[in-house]
Specification:
about 475 residues, alpha/beta, 3-stranded mixed sheet, 10 strands, about 50% helix, disordered C terminus
């Protein structure tokens, strides 16, 4: 009975490991191929600067930028100033802030216009009890105003693009010259940019977040470009207004990850979701572990809740089979890979520490290796490759994408990935318990004040 149980656990473990390694290898491999297809060199992307997204822009689209804000006085001014440009309206949604967020946004807009920059800024103030009902509600409030403006100005919703930015977000130089042409394909409903962490040099946590976003998430998103199912995020998200209109009066849901919900809603209606390797968006990283755990738990809960839409994806008549399969697999990740692996990894570690002369996940002596001198080194090598090989592969990508990272730091981040996995395990289980208790409320992640004029950290200069 015991041997049968161990054999079952071994089989499950091998399956989870195989699925995890296969999914990562396929996603990263597809991403690197897409980079080559877009003729984007890994080495050149680390030199990107931020704050002048309108440079080189020659498109004919009207752009409306929605910036939902809650107590963002410390960062909103620089963001608004960097977004101003031709045929652009920046809509700041002050969602019941206790500070001077709205006034700071208006002052930044006035300063930009005085400096000769085109565009306009509108500040929408939401008051209780309607304020602070979530990011999705703030965006739904803003889109009503955008629709009124578009109708009054006689603009075509199919030729109008809505961008969602975080209050601390800054688009890379020339970003719009790469994003807007993607909408020339009428089937494209959304475009999402890769994320860099601006304050990555602050401490280990901010470096690690940049490693995750820049070396893993961004590259795998490039791979999803092949199936046109790129996942939308809450910062650097672009959508066609007519695509939003097809979702009804309130395109954003009350989900904790309203951006993922929006991506699903667009995809099941046959809209293509794209990204580009030639543009990105930067933002603040969370420098405090407690706040980072709270943020990641929210992300996990939203991702895990989206599993309820899998039937809708599978039955979508306008969605291709490959696209549905990819999105299906993406939604299964926390349930099929993260939660099981959080337990199986401890099982593997226990057996290895209990009996080092046992091959990983097998629980019996390595019969194929008779020499006692080789058995332990081979098992150590097997365990090392099992635990660290995927992270080391992404470390190589991180080093290639940003030459300023340096080999020692890239290797350190790769090896620390396994340790930081425990934070992911914790967040996944916290999210599950919150779901079981029916908890959906959330506290916003606070920003940190930034010093103005630090070009190394991506603060925009004048256009």
């Amino acid at each position: 009975m015991k041997n049968a149980l161990l054999k079952t656990v071994d089989t499950i473990g091998c399956t989870v490991i195989g699925l995890s390694a296969g999914y990562l290898a396929l996603a990263m491999g597809a991403g690197l191929l897409e980079l080559r297809r877009q003729k984007a060199k890994l080495r050149s992307q680390g030199d990107t600067s931020y704050g002048r997204p309108h440079l080189g822009r020659r498109d004919h689209y009207h752009l409306y930028v929605l910036v939902p804000c809650l107590d963002e006085e410390s960062v909103i001014g620089t963001t608004v100033g960097g977004l101003m440009g031709p045929r652009t309206t920046v809509v700041v949604v002050d969602d019941g802030s206790d500070d001077a967020t709205g006034a700071a946004a208006e002052q930044a807009g006035a300063a930009a216009r005085a400096a000769g920059r085109q565009g306009e800024v509108t500040v929408l103030r939401r008051e209780p009890p309607h304020a602070r009902q979530g990011k999705g509600e703030a965006l739904n409030h803003a889109i009503r105003v955008v629709r009124e403006r578009v109708a009054a100005r006689g603009q075509d919703p199919a030729q109008t693009v809505v961008c969602v930015m975080d209050a601390d977000g800054r688009l890379s130089d020339r970003a719009l010259s790469h994003v807007m042409p993607l909408f020339d394909d009428p089937r494209v409903g959304g475009v999402q940019l890769g994320v860099r962490i601006r304050n990555r040099r602050s401490n280990f946590l901010t470096w690690f977040q940049d490693y995750q976003f820049w070396a893993m998430a961004a590259v795998t998103q490039f791979g999803r470009n092949l199936t046109k199912t790129v996942s939308l995020g809450g910062n650097g998200q672009f959508t066609r207004l007519s695509a939003l209109d097809s979702l009804g009066e309130r395109p954003w849901s009350q989900s904790l990850t309203e951006d993922l919900d929006l991506a699903i809603s667009l995809a099941v209606r046959g809209r293509r979701l794209r990204t580009t390797a030639h543009a990105s968006v930067d933002q603040q990283g969370v420098s405090d572990l407690r706040r980072l755990i709270r943020q990641r738990t929210r992300w996990y809960q939203g991702h895990m809740t989206a599993i309820g839409r899998m039937g809708e994806i599978w039955r979508a008549p306008r969605m291709g089979h490959l696209a549905a399969l990819e999105m299906f697999a993406y939604l299964l990740v926390p349930w099929v890979l993260d939660l099981p692996w959080s337990l199986l990894f401890q099982y593997c570690l226990y057996w290895f520490l209990r009996s080092p002369d046992v091959l990983v996940l097998r629980g019996r002596p390595a019969a194929a290796v008779d020499g006692t001198r080789l058995r332990l080194p081979l098992n150590l090598l097997a365990w090392y490759l099992l635990a660290f090989a995927p992270a080391l592969a992404t470390s190589w990508t991180y080093l290639r994408r940003d030459k300023n990272v340096g080999l020692p730091r890239a290797l350190l981040l790769g090896h620390s990935f396994v340790v930081m996995n425990y934070m992911s395990f914790l967040c996944a289980w916290r999210a599950l318990f919150r779901m079981l208790r029916g908890q959906t409320g959330w506290t916003k992640t606070a920003r940190e004040a930034e010093a103005v004029g630090s070009a190394a950290e991506g603060v925009p200069s004048a256009a």
